């Protein structure tokens, strides 16, 4: 498929120039090539009728709130067809400019192929987009938008509902009374006033839970390594480290996204760090808790109670030990299930779809628009470099430090007009935000996402002498006003600083802090600050080799012989905790950090 610009991806051809023209003026071959001949003639007749109508057609495949539907009908022809099979959806989609679904409709590659290029927007009424094939959508020039904010209050309220009902054994007592029992002494609860609530993840929902918990007289702390401290202070919340939150909390409320870093973040090891008798609420994602470990913690009395709205597998099995545990309150993923939230989601998704059909850039887009092939081909390795530098830099930030300011420096021999850095900036934002968030970042929503999170991005260009054959000589990323878990990454002026360049089409990591290194940005990376002395490369290499960890690259940067040096080691496999501890125990190693690229 030919590359598509943002404007052509989202615009409506001829509509403004001549309202009598349809969205398509003829039946293209791609529209009919996959259809049986007898159906082609019927559809051509339908198409002629539709050509007389200036409005786009939007297929609503699952129930949507009435307010959203009314708004949509003012702009488009609306076809509400529910419970469609995949075959029926593929048949209908060729006559539609947009599609709105919830979580029950699978928008597969076959759907996009069946659209014949007409489908321009898919709207997901909710947050998750795992039922939409994003790669296929992008390949076919179709924008995918979601509705991530409308259910914030509903999710927060459900979190508080679970918190209070758990503390007073409401669900268990209700079941007992309905069974004909009257066990007042068995269901004595605990008070919330004066208790410490740890909010794990201080985003939209987490901050709303904190506000409500403060109103209940609770002392609220929060852990979110990338939340601005001033935003937390405005709510009257103290940001603390992960371990401090676990050790001091009477109640823990989870509001973190499910990412590789947060998968099973509550496990046997972390439960052991908690105050005995802690109570846990989860209205975020089921996968952030190791459910088997939670059962063990409940049985051991480490966790007194848990109130869960989400699970690793939904619905969970009927005989699940977790669901059947007497100290667990469970609800069937009701976080967004209020009448108001459903209406809000409907309005939010309709506004996003209508805006996209009008040619406006959608702030809630979750896939990237197509980029001209020649531009993408030239920038491809630099795009990879930009994202990985962002990922590397944010992983160097110590917990508790809110990332507020990122400075990007581009060094190039090209004039500013010959180098469009928007895609590179978007990829750096993607690298900084996605490792610690469930947000999908692309060229469309990068700046909006950064602004929403209080992240200020500044860019600087250094014009170099020489041939402008290559777009860039190097990219440098700096994060200011933060602490680093690897002190050697700090520049002389006090910022975390990483730098990289493209060599023979491969992104390379070339500088950390004041130390020059040179490793390919593949796999993962171990950075070690050491005393510069003979045998260090062999010692570290032997430890990794003995643990069957393959080393792909190794580079040492030093300030002077026999002084301090930084060793950068590229590895194909993730070293075990024991292996990393052995490296840290080497007397000449002063500090080290493991980073996923």
TrEMBL record:
Keywords: Amino-acid biosynthesis, Chloroplast, NAD, Oxidoreductase, Plastid, Serine biosynthesis, Transit peptide. Belongs to the D-isomer specific 2-hydroxyacid dehydrogenase family. GO terms for biological process: L-serine biosynthetic process. InterPro entries: ACT-like_dom_sf, ACT_dom, Ado_hCys_hydrolase_NAD-bd, ASB_dom_sf, D-isomer_2_OHA_DH_cat_dom, D-isomer_DH_CS, D-isomer_DH_CS1, D-isomer_DH_NAD-bd. The lineage of its organism: Eukaryota, Viridiplantae, Streptophyta, Embryophyta, Tracheophyta. Pfam families: 2-Hacid_dh (PF00389), 2-Hacid_dh_C (PF02826), ACT (PF01842), PGDH_inter (PF19304). Its EC number is 1.1.1.95. This is D-3-phosphoglycerate dehydrogenase. Its main location: plastid. It comes from Papaver atlanticum. It is found in: Plastid, Chloroplast. GO terms for molecular function: NAD binding; phosphoglycerate dehydrogenase activity. It catalyses: (2R)-3-phosphoglycerate + NAD(+) = 3-phosphooxypyruvate + NADH + H(+). It comes from the Eukaryota. NCBIfam families: PGDH. Gene3D superfamilies: 3.30.70.260, D-3-phosphoglycerate dehydrogenase, domain 3, NAD(P)-binding Rossmann-like Domain. Residues 525-597 form the ACT domain. Pathway: Amino-acid biosynthesis; L-serine biosynthesis; L-serine from 3-phospho-D-glycerate: step 1/3.
């Amino acid at each position: 498929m030919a590359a598509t610009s943002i404007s052509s991806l989202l615009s409506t051809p001829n509509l403004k120039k001549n309202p009598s023209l349809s969205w398509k003026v003829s039946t293209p071959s791609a529209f009919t090539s996959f259809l049986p001949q007898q159906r082609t003639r019927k559809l051509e007749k339908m198409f002629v009728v539709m050509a007389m109508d200036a409005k786009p057609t939007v297929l609503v495949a699952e129930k949507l709130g009435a307010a959203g539907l009314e708004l949509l009908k003012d702009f488009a022809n609306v076809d509400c067809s529910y419970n469609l099979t995949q075959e029926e959806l593929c048949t209908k989609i060729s006559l539609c400019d947009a599609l709105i679904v919830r979580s029950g409709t699978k928008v597969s590659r076959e759907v996009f192929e069946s659209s014949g290029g007409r489908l321009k927007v898919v709207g997901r009424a909710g947050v998750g987009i795992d039922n939409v094939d994003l790669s296929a959508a992008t390949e076919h020039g179709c924008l995918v938008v979601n509705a991530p904010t409308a259910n914030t209050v509903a999710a927060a309220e459900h979190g508080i509902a679970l918190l209070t009902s758990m503390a007073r054994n409401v669900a268990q007592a209700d079941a007992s009374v309905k069974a004909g029992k009257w066990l007042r002494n068995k269901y004595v609860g605990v008070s919330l006033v004066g208790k410490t609530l740890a909010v794990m993840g201080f985003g939209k929902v987490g901050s709303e839970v904190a506000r409500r918990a403060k109103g209940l007289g609770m002392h609220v702390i929060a852990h979110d390594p990338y939340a601005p401290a001033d935003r937390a202070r405005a709510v009257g919340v103290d940001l603390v480290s992960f371990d401090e939150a676990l050790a001091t909390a009477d109640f823990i409320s989870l509001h973190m996204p499910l990412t590789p870093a947060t998968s099973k973040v509550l496990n046997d090891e972390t439960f052991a760090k908690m105050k005995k008798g802690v109570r846990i609420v989860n209205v975020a994602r089921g996968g952030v808790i190791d459910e088997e470990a939670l059962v063990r913690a409940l049985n051991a009395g480490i966790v007194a109670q848990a109130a869960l709205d989400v699970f690793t597998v939904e619905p969970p099995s009927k005989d699940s030990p977790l669901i059947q545990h007497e100290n667990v309150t469970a609800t069937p993923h009701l976080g967004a299930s209020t009448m108001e939230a459903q209406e809000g989601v409907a309005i939010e998704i309709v506004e996003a779809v209508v805006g996209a059909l009008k040619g406006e850039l959608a702030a809630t887009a979750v896939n990237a628009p197509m980029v001209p092939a020649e531009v993408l081909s030239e920038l491809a390795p630099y795009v990879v470099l930009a994202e990985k530098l962002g990922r590397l830099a944010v992983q160097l930030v110590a917990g508790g430090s809110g990332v507020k300011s990122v400075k990007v420096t581009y060094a190039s021999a090209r004039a500013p007009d010959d180098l469009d850095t928007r895609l590179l900036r978007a990829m750096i934002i993607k690298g900084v935000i996605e490792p610690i968030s469930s947000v999908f970042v692309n060229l469309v929503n990068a700046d909006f996402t950064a602004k929403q999170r209080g992240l200020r991005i500044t860019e600087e260009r250094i014009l170099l002498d020489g041939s402008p054959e290559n777009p860039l000589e190097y990219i440098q990323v700096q994060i200011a006003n933060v602490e680093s878990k690897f002190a050697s990454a700090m520049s002389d002026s006090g910022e975390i600083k990483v730098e990289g360049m493209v060599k023979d089409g491969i992104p390379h990591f070339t500088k950390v802090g004041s130390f020059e290194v040179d490793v390919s940005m593949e796999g993962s990376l171990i950075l070690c600050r050491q005393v510069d002395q003979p045998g260090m490369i062999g010692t570290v290499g032997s430890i990794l080799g003995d643990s069957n960890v393959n080393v792909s690259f190794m580079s040492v940067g030093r300030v002077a012989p026999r002084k301090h040096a930084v060793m950068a080691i590229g590895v194909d496999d993730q070293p075990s905790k024991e292996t990393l501890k052995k490296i840290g125990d080497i007397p000449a190693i002063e500090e080290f950090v493991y980073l996923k690229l």
